[in-house]
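Researcher: Here's the sequence for the chain we discussed earlier.
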Amino acid sequence: MLQEAKDRAKTKRERREAWVREFFGPDQQRRDQDDPSQKRWFSSVKNQAKIMQLWIRRNPKYQRAREVLWDRADLLDRPITTLLWLAPDFRKLDSWLDGIACTGLALSSLVFILGSANVPVLLTLWICQRSIMAVGGLWYGYGWEAQIAELGFHALFLVPLWSLHPIPNMPTPGIVMWMIRWYLFRIMMGAGLIKIKSNDKKWKLTHLSAMDYFYETQPVPNLLTRTMHFMPKAWHKFEVLSNHFVELVAPIFLILPGLPRRWLRAAGLTQMTFQAILISTGNLSFLNWLTMVPAIFCFDDASLQGLFSAKRVTEASVASLSYHPTVARSVISLLFGVLVMWLSIPVVKNLLSKRQQMNASFDPLRLINSYGAFGTVGEVRKELIIKSAADPKGEWKEYEFKVKPGPVERGPRWITPYHYRLDWQIWIAALSPKIGPWVLRFLLKLLKGDKGVLNLLDHDPWEGEPDKPKHIKIEQYRYRFKKPERLWGKGPFWERELIKQVYPQQGSATIDSLKTEIKQVDPDRPV
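Model: Thanks. This is the structure I predict for it:
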């Protein structure tokens, strides 16, 4: 990916340089002098400015900077912002990825311990997160990756430039707090609108049946999910109505100017309560925890002072008396607000569109985005079960994932806010009509006994066995919650039935057959 983007950037630069050379070449200048219309074009002040820009573009340093910082983009022409450009060999990035992750972990721990942050710390954290997100592909293609990047961008304008004191000598910029509430508004409104505009009738007021299926079909259930699934249908209808209120009505109170403080606090509390309910009834990664953060900015100091010691509250009260925002700080905050609202124009247009895009970006740097979740809810839970065998006529052993449903006796776990990306991706793969290239590579590594991949699973079913697997296949099962005899009854958690074998459609796959197919469907990458 990185090498391809680098090659595309080099081609862009060469074409741009050739065009500029032709524009300022002697042949073009003679044609311009002989053509009266061209003389008038050059005499325009506006066009003189354009010529000046072209002169700047002739500068080799400018060309090099643009190639590295802007032209190295993905297939959607969005600049790939990552520290991995500094790596000498794009084929050996493990140590770089580990270093970026450890840097982020260390700085996050520092912020947690100190209870404060400054611009250099948050900027480094933002770059670390963007560095991995930019190259993560489908593994980092979830909406909450862009969501945490956008919140990190907002946070840069909240904190002091250098000070790491828990109580900084500057007020929190009011414009930035408004922009963070606007960010939360876009998240919730996007989630609500995508539901009512979708073709899924289960979200419509005439049906209200989405929650009849949501718990059983969500990516990674937790211990309460089955209990919620078997609640009365009237309760599920109430849940859908409550969801529409929280996502379509309550967000309006986040951004209405002049509201009494108690109304704003109620709006923030509504959003935090809603996210807490989602956390308690499902493992939706860190999405709901992350969405709680901007809701904090609905509460004033009087509402939150009970969370801090009397000494800290006194220090903050004394410090607030000496707050004097600088002109520079005020100007930067104002410019930030203008930038956010300018970049929000296509986002608002998308929200109002009949064909709303979910989790979409409209600016090249993906600073301000559009969000949404669960526009449609499936009615049947289908799971891909991977099995392998040393002999196709012998015993087939099933690979168990860490958290996704597998054996019917195994119940779910509490894992939020942790994100088991492999388990999520295999759940997404079960919704696809065909097996993707990454799944084929995954099967190949399982047959090869790749330790790094096997460590992502619950355990290796062939560990300690004298024979090793030579054949592999994927079967599709339908899963249903098994209703317990008592509310917290034990026993099998699931019921499942075989639907069909999805890969290969007949027989089994081997290392050689997988290599051949991977070369056909993904020829640009080595096997």
